[in-house]
Write a structure and sequence with these properties.
heterodimer; A: about 250 residues; 8-stranded parallel beta barrel; about 35% helix; B: about 210 residues; 4-stranded mixed β-sheet; 14 strands
């Protein structure tokens, strides 16, 4: 049986892994290669890098990070953050990324999803969707960390990007992100049921049961988390052991 | 030390495959090449592939690599990966294109009506992630790899060989499908050993010391 995936997410700024503390202060959390290798050893199924480098001058640094990690860590790598064009996608794939995640650029120009998947294949293209609940059973797509409304219905948008050629959806609840209250399971399930491509649940994980809930109740194909792994609260292996105990198929 | 050529016909990044082989075969000469002469000069050949099979076939021929691939597949330790496995067959449903025809059989898409899990939930396509690979024949490339070990897959099509004796492994995803085929000097897999952590590195290591 196919295993449900656990994906640690690393924020990378100017070539270093950083951790947000109280949403403002960024603290250095190490060398991306070392952190990625540690998660690989713990049994992570994939690793996602989110490039949050503020200065556009430093944008190319992420390419070197990806090159170095891909030389030493032999599990799939996804990279997102500031990806705007098909050329951006190609550069990241050539550096060693297996998948590239597109967020705001897809909203601004949905054609980029079709162009990118046409060039490099759907399997390389992840569309990241940041959603907020606006009414019972209704979620809207936001950009810029939840500040900008788009007017797009999250479920309709997910179906649209799937039809444009996205191979996977990274779905983040902006209501839950950073709260540690668990995934928005209603949102996760609604999107997962609506599309035929895999959905990664993200935003809100505060304990290991939340990860399992994302699969059992949210019907996610994979679960992504950052802080519960970074701050040493839990290892990926512990997460998998708990998921297995709850009857979920995992790679252990 | 062994000289291995990874055939580069412009479809996807081959760096990970090259780095994974360098990682397991220290001192091996690994060359990523589009030059038929280099393919023919190598002792071992890796035939990868990413994206869509029609594009892969077109780019292979645009670079004049077909004769070198056929020659290598008939004479040297030869490892097909992903679309590089699919292209060895006669025909693909993807884009309705012919393949190289080394093996009889068809490349098929996962049937929509069978994509249902045991609990009734929908199985997503592409088949993406770590799934169990059940070995169907003893083979030197399985050395040190547990039966049912998980490898990383990402694909929407799979090979359906006409000759069941070719099947070296199967995986279940809605249906049982062929994950690996083997015949003489050819071993070809749908999953990605370069992305499959320890099990994948072991398979690549086995390939580098394989004497068919």
């Amino acid at each position: 049986m196919l295993a449900k995936r656990i994906i640690p997410c690393l924020d990378v700024s100017a070539g270093r892994v950083v951790k947000g503390v109280n949403f403002v202060e960024l603290r250095d959390a190490g060398d991306p290669v070392e952190v990625a290798r540690r998660y690989d050893e713990q049994g992570a199924d994939e690793i996602t890098f989110l490039d949050i480098t503020a200065s556009s001058d430093d944008r190319n640094i992420i390419l070197h990070v990806v090159e170095q990690v891909a030389e030493q860590v032999f599990i799939p790598l996804t990279v997102g953050g500031g990806v705007r064009t098909v050329d951006d996608v190609r550069r990241l794939l050539n550096a060693g990324a297996d998948k590239v995640s597109i967020n705001t650029a897809a909203v601004n120009n949905p054609q980029v999803v079709a162009d990118a998947s046409g060039k490099v294949g759907s399997q390389c293209i992840v569309v990241a969707i940041d959603a907020k609940q606006v009414a019972p059973g209704k979620w809207e797509v936001f950009t810029h960390g939840g500040r900008n409304r788009t007017g797009l219905d999250a479920i309709e948008w997910a179906c649209k990007v799937a039809s444009l050629g996205a191979g996977e959806i990274l779905l983040t609840s902006m209501d839950r992100d950073g709260t540690k209250n668990g995934f928005d399971l209603g949102l996760t399930r609604a999107v997962s049921d609506a599309v035929a491509i895999p959905v990664i649940a993200s935003g809100g994980v505060g304990n290991l049961d939340h990860l399992a809930d994302g699969v059992t109740e949210g019907r996610a194909d994979a679960v992504l988390a950052a802080s519960i792994f970074h701050f040493g609260e839990h290892t990926v292996r512990e997460a998998k052991e708990l998921m297995r105990a709850r009857g979920i198929e995992v790679r252990l | 030390m062994s000289r291995v050529a990874i055939i580069d016909y412009g479809m996807g990044n081959l760096r990970s495959v090259a780095k994974a082989i360098e990682h397991v075969a220290q001192g091996a000469s690994v060359v990523v090449t589009a030059d038929p002469a280099e393919v023919l000069a190598a002792e071992r050949v890796v035939f990868p592939g990413q994206g869509a099979m029609p594009d892969c076939m077109r780019e292979l021929d645009a670079r004049g690599l077909r004769p070198a691939v056929l020659e290598a597949a008939g004479s040297k330790p030869f490892l097909g990966i992903c679309i590089g496995q699919q292209m060895l067959f006669e025909h693909s449903e993807e884009g309705n294109v012919p393949g190289l025809g080394i093996f009889k059989g068809e490349v098929r898409r996962f049937p929509a009506d069978k994509m249902v899990a045991a609990d009734g939930s929908r199985l997503k396509v592409p088949h993406m992630g770590w799934n169990e690979v059940w070995q169907k024949q003893a083979h030197p490339l399985w050395a040190g790899i547990e039966d049912g070990a998980r490898f990383y897959y990402v694909h929407s099509y799979y090979v359906d060989p006409a000759d069941p004796a070719l099947v070296a492994a199967t995986t279940d995803y809605g249906i049982p499908f062929t994950g690996a085929v083997a015949q003489a000097n050819i071993f070809a897999i749908q999953f990605h050993p370069e992305k499959s952590a320890q099990a994948g590195l072991q398979l690549l290591s086995n390939f580098m010391s394989w004497k068919p």
